[in-house]
Design goal:
Layout: E1 4-11, E2 14-21, E3 24-30, H1 35-46, E4 51-52, H2 54-68, H3 86-95, E5 104-105, H4 106-112, H5 119-127, E6 140-141, H6 154-168
Parallel strand pairs: 1-4, 5-6
Antiparallel strand pairs: 1-2, 2-3
Helix pairs in contact: 3-5, 4-5
Amino acid sequence: MSTVTSTEYDGPLGPILLTFVDDCLVRLDVAHDGIDLARAEISQRLGVVPEPDAAVGEPLCAQLDEYFAGERRTFDVGLDWRLVRGFTRAALEATLDIPYGEVASYGEVALMADAPRAARAVGTACASSPFSIVVPVHRVVRADGSIGEYGGHPEVKEYLLDLESRVVRGERLQATG
């Protein structure tokens, strides 16, 4: 039987709910509408209320701190893909190959996922990613270079892209905590 736990992370984007099945991340939710709603949504999706457990999330919280401080470019956390189906997984896995500080178009990600005509499906996959930030769907942009909606919060995508761009340029970042 699996253990489902969650912890909260408070960073520059606001509250984030991290949910794990055993030791693998099943969902990272930037809780724009509040932690309680995020917790209710994941409980419904998984069919179980996650038990609060800060210890399980400590390594990822530390990695998020490093990322937001410009000291980390990739994440080292196991991913539980149970909330991802079919082509969505292939598209999300393809985004892992987009280098830090760079972007790829939806069409380019479709090619990377071996589905060259599926640019729109890539957009849907990115919008439904349960692994925001950790799986860098924020690095996927429209063909014209505009950033798109990012689940109704383009300011979050803009923040993440700007953060990575500044790190790549060697700019010093202010502390986030």
